[in-house]
Amino acid sequence: MVGPADGPLIEFRVLGGVEAWRAGRRVELGGPKQRAALASLLLRAGRVVSLEQLIDDLWPEHPPARAAATVQVFVSHLRRALEPDRPRGAPATVLVTAAPGYRLAVEPEAVDAHAFARLADEGHAALAGDDPNRAAELLARAAELWRGPALADLPDAPFVRAEAARLDELRLGAAEDRADAELALGRHAAVVPELERRVRTHPMRERSRAQLMLALYRCGRQAHALETYRHGRRVLREELGLDPGTRLRELEQAVLRHDPDLSWEPPRPVVLPAPAPDPAGSRTDAPGRVLVVDDSGINRTVLVAALTELGHEVHSAENGRRALELLRLDDGFDVVLLDLLMPVLDGYSTLAAIKADPALDHLPVIMVSAVSELASVVRCIELGATDYLPKPFSAAMLRARMRSSLALKRRHDGERAEIAALRTEVDRARALAERR
User: How many angstroms separate the CA atoms of 363 and 326, rounded?
Assistant: First the structure.
């Protein structure tokens, strides 16, 4: 979510009906044509959209005689809706005039479609990089951004149909990437229902059908896997006059011969380093002030509840940018629990910013994530994290992580106090020497 400088945050949504939310409240965007004008700008967020392009998007065949004036009225109404507190005569800061048309002056991440595309790309890259844990988490977050068919409440128009089809194809591709990640993690039973629905809805997608066959086979349902293949072959022959592709045919043969390569074996677990011994003894069991940073409301609630039960005073932030604001305003925090994967400043970037700030670099940061690959652990430690909390975690594990981090913080505070006391003694001695 992004807003103008010193203004409220604005979030735009097109993955469903077209919506705008300002400071947590839904904005009234007007009628279908006016919302379509906003959608045309949203899908090109940050870029200039010419007046001619807007007219062509809204009236592709027979634009009215006063089409340009009508678009200008739409823009005026949208500006008032998006910036209701803007003084009369002051220039707009969200929907700005930029020759030869208009530009939405927001970062692409303020629009759910662009945030989705980034998460989908990062998930695909993680999958290609043999990191299915990270891929599954990123792609699950991408899927959560969808509320229904894209641009669902707009009037039928070529640009609406084209953009909706493009976004739907991206959605399907991301869903298939996520299924591959889940299968790589051994979650074949969990993905069967979703894959069955996808194959029913999109019977021509051979990748989804292959994923369903593999999941069924790994669940011990060889006959169902073969029937899934035979049904796909019938559909392709009846609809297109084609046979299944090489991948599906080879998979059918592998299922028939019980190819051991189709089986799934759990990877060897990553052994995380044990927390450092606590030299401060039971003093580290005293509660501290903790900041929990996670873009998932559910994850924040779980962590806040668990830490509160351990007696800590807990605050939370919904993204890395907000966390940095809170930490710079309030120097009383003892520990930061920071989620690794977030759409607005991910955990790596937020951790790096904390450690680069001389006013914050002393804070212990515990990285929290379902991604437990050793490479992720090492990267976090290299950036300055003091510990790593893998999800799911137990109360005992959380207590141990907090104990070691609080010990580090309090040892650092003690050293700073000793240095301050020594500095005071040196200053006093110098003052006495000068008086003599």
Answer: 13
What are 146's two structure tokens?
Answer: 């969808």
The span from the CA of 311 to the CA of 293, in Å, is 18
Q: Kindly state the average pLDDT of the residues 185-196.
A: 93
Task: Tell me: do 120 and 85 sit in the same domain.
Answer: no
Instruction: Give the chain's largest Cα–Cα span.
Output: 106
430 located within any domain = no
Tokens of 110: 């303020």
> Is residue 115 predicted with pLDDT exceeding 60?
yes
Cis peptide before 64 (omega within 30 of 0): no
Tell me the pTM.
0.63
- Inter-axis angle of helices 158-184 and 132-144, to 10 degrees? 150
Alpha carbons 14 and 415: distance in angstroms, whole number: 53
Domain of 253? 114-146+153-262
Distance CA 59, CA 6 (A): 37
Give the Å distances, CA to CA, from 125 to 141, 211, 246.
15, 19, 25
| Residue 429 lies inside a defined structural domain of this protein | no
* Co-location of 122 and 207 in the same domain: yes
Exposure letters 221-253 (e unless 16+ CB within 10 A, then b): bbebbbebbeebbebbeeeeeeebeeebeebbe
